What does this fold into?
Amino acid sequence: MKTRILLVRHGATVLTQEDRFAGATDVLLSDEGAEQAAALRDRLAKTKLGAVYCSPMKRTVKTATIIAEPHNLELNKVDGIREIDHGHWEEKKREEVEEEFADEYISWNADPFTYAPEGGESGLQVLSRALPPIREIVEKHAGETVLIVSHKATIRLLIGSFLGFDLRRFRDNLDQKPCCLNVLDFTVAKPIKARLSLFNDISHYKKNQETDALKPQLSAVWSGVE
It folds into this structure.
């Protein structure tokens, strides 16, 4: 028996186009983000869902609410899958952080899995709070398909962990577009194993939604690379 997880990043927010660090900042979904969620809602309308889970942050709650409309399911808010906290970098652009906190940024960029800016979280800390509830969901919903709406860094860390990647490079090697769909199947028998069958998929986007969503964000490696 398996559990299928539809792991979704929230839609675009009012800060997405400004390319700012906004992990712990409880920013709202933008009109564009709501349209992206509606497109995914239509895509998944006939998929039978056993449950819907989301981070308690406003952008994930709104995304999950829109996607879940056809399914008449109550949202289950899970604090452990909220976004990474960037500490005193919150709401700043990458260029501002590079200039104001140069030493911190160099250390973090080299290894965001174990290093955290002042007042923030490392990837390791995020993973330690996000993995337990995912395991609980997998075991609770054996044989079902479950929707989970979370965040960019949190999802990349989870998927990287499931697949055994070097998580020091999770930011450079894995991407998550706004309101993208990832599909993972989990065995329920212990030890629980995961298989990724769909990653970062935005085929539900309308054509006018594609251009901005495909721009790299907060990445020194991929910004400016066509």
Observations:
- The chain is about 35% helix and 15% strand.
- Residues 23 and 83 are 5 Å apart (CA to CA).
- The longest strand covers residues 2-9.
